[in-house]
């Protein structure tokens, strides 16, 4: 399986990677949809409710308590998958990473062209004056974080449920997928829309799915690998041409 993947990679000139939570779980970042993820918790509401725009507006204290506790992960480092993707970009084979993750680990690994569909915890802005604050400001604040300059609420640059995706990010991701000769889908169950719908723009030669569970794209894929993605992308395989 991995040998077949490496052969596809070696023959491709325009790879795009589309990834989700499974890419970061090997860096110790939990997937809040997994059974042992964030569901068995001390909160009165499911994560999807807490991470909604309405909840952020109506119960900001509870929102930020959950957000600090669950979405800001200290000390997470890029894993083998992030590092291999960055290497493929340096080699000129991979043209873009499209991610549903909000942890910034692709950039930390060295990837340059990254479309963050759901934003990033590393960027935070005052809703009143637009001042920028880093992740540590939110992590070290208590209650509802307020802007020292104007007193406005500081909101993470993360797309909450009920909010639309950034149009520029979306159009960049669509055009990257349209141009790709190979699309590798990894670590995502393809259930979160509109992000999951982007793969329908792919018209290239090879569709590869690397995910522990079945996905909606498996039927169309040339290759499906049910293994942890870091393991798959780090396996050293010699490919015979």
TrEMBL record:
Cofactor(s) needed by this chain: Zn(2+)
Similarity field: Belongs to the sirtuin family. Class U subfamily.
Compartment list: Cytoplasm
Keyword check for Acyltransferase: no
Residues binding NAD(+), per UniProt: 21, 25, 32-33, 100, 102-103, 118, 188-189, 211, 229
UniProt keyword terms in alphabetical order: Cytoplasm, Hydrolase, Metal-binding, NAD, Transferase, Zinc
Active site: 118 (proton acceptor)
Protein name: NAD-dependent protein deacetylase
UniProt-annotated binding residues for Zn(2+): 126, 129, 147, 150
Pfam families registered for this protein in UniProt: SIR2
Catalytic activity entry: N(6)-acetyl-L-lysyl-[protein] + NAD(+) + H2O = 2''-O-acetyl-ADP-D-ribose + nicotinamide + L-lysyl-[protein]
Gene3D superfamilies in UniProt: SIR2/SIRT2 'Small Domain (3.30.1600.10), TPP-binding domain (3.40.50.1220)
Coiled-coil segments: none
EC assignment: 2.3.1.286
Gene Ontology, cellular component aspect: cytoplasm
Organism placement in taxonomy: Bacteria, Bacillati, Bacillota, Clostridia, Eubacteriales
NCBIfam families: PRK00481.1-1, PRK00481.1-3
Organism: Faecalibacterium prausnitzii
Binding annotation for nicotinamide: 32, 102-103
């Amino acid at each position: 399986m991995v040998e077949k993947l490496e052969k596809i990679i070696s023959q491709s000139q325009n790879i795009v990677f589309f990834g989700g939570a499974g890419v970061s779980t090997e860096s110790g970042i939990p997937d809040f949809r997994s059974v042992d993820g964030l569901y068995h918790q001390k909160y009165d509401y499911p994560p999807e409710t807490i991470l909604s725009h309405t909840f952020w507006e109506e119960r900001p204290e509870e929102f930020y308590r959950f957000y600090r506790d669950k979405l800001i992960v200290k000390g997470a480092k890029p894993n083998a998958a992030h590092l291999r993707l960055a290497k493929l970009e340096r080699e000129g084979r991979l043209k873009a990473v499209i991610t549903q993750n909000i942890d910034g680990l692709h950039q930390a690994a060295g990837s340059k062209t990254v479309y963050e569909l759901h934003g990033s915890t590393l960027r935070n802005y005052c809703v009143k004056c637009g001042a920028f604050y880093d992740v540590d400001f939110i992590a070290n604040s208590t209650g509802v974080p307020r802007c020292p300059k104007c007193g406005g609420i500081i909101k993470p640059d993360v797309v909450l449920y009920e909010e639309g995706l950034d149009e520029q990010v979306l159009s960049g991701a669509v055009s990257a997928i349209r141009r790709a000769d190979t699309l590798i889908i990894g670590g995502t169950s393809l259930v979160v829309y509109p992000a999951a719908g982007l793969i329908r723009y792919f018209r290239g030669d090879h569709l590869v799915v690397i995910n522990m569970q079945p996905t909606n794209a498996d039927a169309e894929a040339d290759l499906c690998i049910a293994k942890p993605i870091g393991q798959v992308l780090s396996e050293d395989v010699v490919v015979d041409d």
